Amino acid sequence: RAKEAGRGVTCFFEAEMEERLLERGLLEQDLRAALAKGEFSVSFQPLHNCGTRDVTSFEALLRWENPERGKVSPADFIPVAEECGLILPLGRWMLEQACTVAASWPHPYTVAVNLSPVQFQRGNLPAQVAEVLAQTGLPANQLELEVTEGLLIEDSEGALATMRALKALGVRLALDDFGTGYSSLSYLRRFPFDKLKIDKSFIQAIELDAGARAIVDAILAMGHSLNLRVTAEGVETEEQLAFLLRHDCDEVQGFLLGRPVPAEQLCRSLRKKVGAAMA
Ligand code: C2E
Ligand code: MG
Ligand code: MG
Ligand code: MG
Fold first, then answer.
1. Which ligand is nearest to the CA of 115?
2. Ligand 4 centre distance from Cα of residue 234 (Å)
3. Which pTM was predicted?
4. Which part of the chain is the EAL domain (predicted)?
5. 176 CB less than 6 Å from ligand 1?
6. Residue 74 CA: which ligand is closest?
7. How sure is the predictor about 204, in pLDDT bands with cuts at 50, 70 and 90?
8. ipTM of this predicted structure
């Protein structure tokens, strides 16, 4: 009896595993086709000066809309694109798009582009970035590249060399999602970052959790003592913004002050703003 039941369980897991693998394979197929079919687009979310609320820059965020699947979150498809290598052409496309759009803005805002560790490890990133800057005409000091801590753990020597080469081009580097990984202080000293972005999970706990407030405060103090600019991600309430302002946060990003918008919509509103300022 027990043996039979055991076999049933095994079969159940096998069937489930098989289904998951199949679904993964289908997602991978759709992803590969998506680039050629033009299903990807770029949205931009503003970052604001914490005190004045003026826009300082925009983060480029990848969007995928598939006729059958609808909108798929980058949190769901980026890991798959990384595993199957598609992140290399997709990352290159994203960099070109973001720089092209930013070069067309009527005001020289900085644009921030997220990079996968896979792009760092393969694909001669500094040469690629130099090429895209030359091709789009975007000044290097208007490009910021965001990386996560995973990169620094996996191959820190290689990452350091690549980061130094990127800095030599004149682009800026930001450490994204700070606080969720190992968050080692030695990374901050060792790698040439310009900016730290505090992960939204801490910001969203500001009103609820004294521990989160202490961590945010500590990250701000530490970042500033290392001469880094500090951005808070995921700011959704005035209370969060007030806390961040009191603790000398430099910059905020979040639904309270601005959601990600499609490139064309942002361009229209930037032109309108310039037109209004000149009228
Ligand atoms: P991220 O780089 O930390 O980007 C910020 C994410 O937080 C975005 O999610 C943004 O829409 C979301 N967000 C901003 N403000 C708020 C807020 O007030 N509340 C909440 N709940 N969320 C907020 P999104 O666009 O879904 O992207 C998720 C992640 O996918 C990004 O996190 C980034 O890690 C990755 N990603 C997006 N585009 C790219 C890309 O072009 N390349 C790579 N490698 N990764 C990307
Ligand atoms: Mg980011
Ligand atoms: Mg982030
Ligand atoms: Mg994040």
1. 1
2. 9
3. 0.94
4. 24-274
5. yes
6. 1
7. very high
8. 0.98
